[in-house]
Predict the structure.
Amino acid sequence: AQKVTQAQTEISVVEKEDVTLDCVYETRDTTYYLFWYKQPPSGELVFLIRRNSFDEQNEISGRYSWNFQKSTSSFNFTITASQVVDSAVYFCALSEAALNDYKLSFGAGTTVTVRA
Amino acid sequence: DSGVTQTPKHLITATGQRVTLRCSPRSGDLSVYWYQQSLDQGLQFLIQYYNGEERAKGNILERFSAQQFPDLHSELNLSSLELGDSALYFCASSVAEATYEQYFGPGTRLTVT
């Protein structure tokens, strides 16, 4: 069963628009970690943010912000005032501590295209 | 630059052959993970090592094997290659076993012809 669902396959925006990426996860663990990674056209995977299941405080880091809601099992990510350099595939990922392995289960990714 | 290095960057080989992918983790990181990214399967976890010992296995084929050496670098060996093994193979490292963020290398793009 898919543990992480990113329903949006592609999003296209004009520069300076805000972009919100949806992520819904599924786990029976009480302790888990959620991540967002970015994969630009060059191909590398870049770590953006991590959140643990005990911290639902939403934060802002520069142009990035995230909204973690355990009640709806969602971990959405927003890019404010998007720039062309934000064009990439964004992956949401889940790590479940109770399995005693710390692999990342990734969603299918959302391709973001920011047009000038 | 994540600090994780992978070699080679590109690899083209024929079906039935064997290849070795190499990964050096970030300085101080004890845990190494291997992932495969393909168009049909997405990003899939293969295997994890921590301080030289295998910790977890994911969807890794029996034709694939890996190890982590005393200097903490890791190698992923792929044998009897098939066309479907063509993919981007990532190595990632983290400080410890637990769910600290994983930092990914640039990947090795394997093409099997």
